[in-house]
Design goal:
Strand order of the largest sheet: 3-2-1-6-5-4
CATH topology: Beta-Lactamase
CATH class: Alpha Beta
CATH architecture: 2-Layer Sandwich
Helix content: 40-55%
Mean pLDDT: 84
Number of strands: 6
Number of domains: 1
Structural class: alpha+beta
Oligomer: single chain
Low-confidence stretches: none
Order of helices and strands: HHEEHEHEHEEH
CATH superfamily: GAF domain
Distance between the termini: 91 Å
C-alpha cells in the first residue's frame, strides 16, 4: 500500500485536531475541578465553626445553592426523613418547582431518594427513564421532565437522616462520576452541619 504525501499531511492534521480536542477536554475538566474545590472550601468554612444556632432555613438554603453551583445543576432539593411517619419531606428546593415541591411529602421507599436513604449509598442515574428505581410520580405531580439526577445521603455519624438530590445538569451533558464525587463531599459537610445544629439544640434544651 502506497501512502502519498497528501495522505500523510491529512493524517497529521487529523492527529493534531484530535490532540487539540483532548487538551480542551482536559482543560475543561481541570477548570471544573478547580471551581469545585473552591466552592467546597466555602461550604467547609461555613459548616466547620458552627457554634451558634443559625437561621436554619436560610443557612441550609445557602449550602444547597453552593452545591448546585459546584455541580452545575439546574434543580436541587434537601430531603429529610421523618422517622415518625416514615415519609420523606422536601425541606428546601431550588428551581422553578420550588413553590409546588416545598414541604411536599412522599413515602420513604419512593424513587432514587428513597433508595439512597435506605442504602446510605450515593446514586448516579444518567438516564432516569432507563432506571427501574426511578419514580415518575414527582415529574407527573409537577409536569416536569427529569433527564438525569444524582443523590447523596445526609448522615449524622452512621445514621441516615435525609438526602441531597440534584436534577438535570445545566450544560449539554448529563451528570458523571466527577459530579457525584463532588456531591458526596458536599453532602458530608452538610451532614456535619446538621449534626452541630442537633448538638446546639440539645445543649440549649439542657441548659433550660
Amino acid at each position: 500500500m502506497v501512502i502519498n504525501r497528501r495522505d500523510i499531511i491529512q493524517m497529521l492534521r487529523d492527529e493534531n485536531n484530535l490532540l487539540k480536542s483532548r487538551n480542551k477536554q482536559v482543560g475543561n475538566k481541570l477548570a471544573y475541578l478547580q471551581q469545585a474545590f473552591r466552592v467546597l472550601n466555602t461550604i467547609d468554612a461555613k459548616t466547620h465553626n458552627l457554634t451558634e444556632m443559625p437561621d436554619i432555613e436560610e443557612f441550609f438554603h445557602q449550602l444547597l445553592e453552593l452545591v448546585l453551583h459546584t455541580c452545575n445543576a439546574e434543580n436541587g432539593s434537601l430531603i429529610m426523613l421523618d422517622d415518625n411517619t416514615q415519609e420523606l419531606e422536601f425541606v428546601d428546593v431550588i428551581g422553578p418547582s420550588r413553590n409546588a415541591l416545598l414541604r411536599h411529602r412522599m413515602k420513604v421507599d419512593t424513587g432514587i431518594a428513597g433508595e439512597t436513604i435506605k442504602t446510605g449509598q450515593a446514586k448516579l442515574v444518567e438516564n432516569v427513564h432507563a432506571s427501574n428505581k426511578w419514580s415518575s410520580s414527582i415529574d407527573e405531580y409537577l409536569s416536569f421532565h427529569t433527564e438525569s439526577l444524582m443523590c447523596a445521603p445526609l448522615k449524622i455519624e452512621s445514621r441516615v437522616i435525609g438526602a441531597v438530590e440534584l436534577v438535570n445538569h445545566a450544560g449539554e451533558r448529563t451528570f458523571d462520576e466527577n459530579d457525584l464525587n463532588v456531591l458526596q463531599v458536599a453532602s458530608g459537610y452538610i451532614g456535619r452541619a446538621l449534626e452541630r445544629v442537633e448538638k446546639i439544640i440539645e445543649s440549649t434544651e439542657a441548659s433550660k
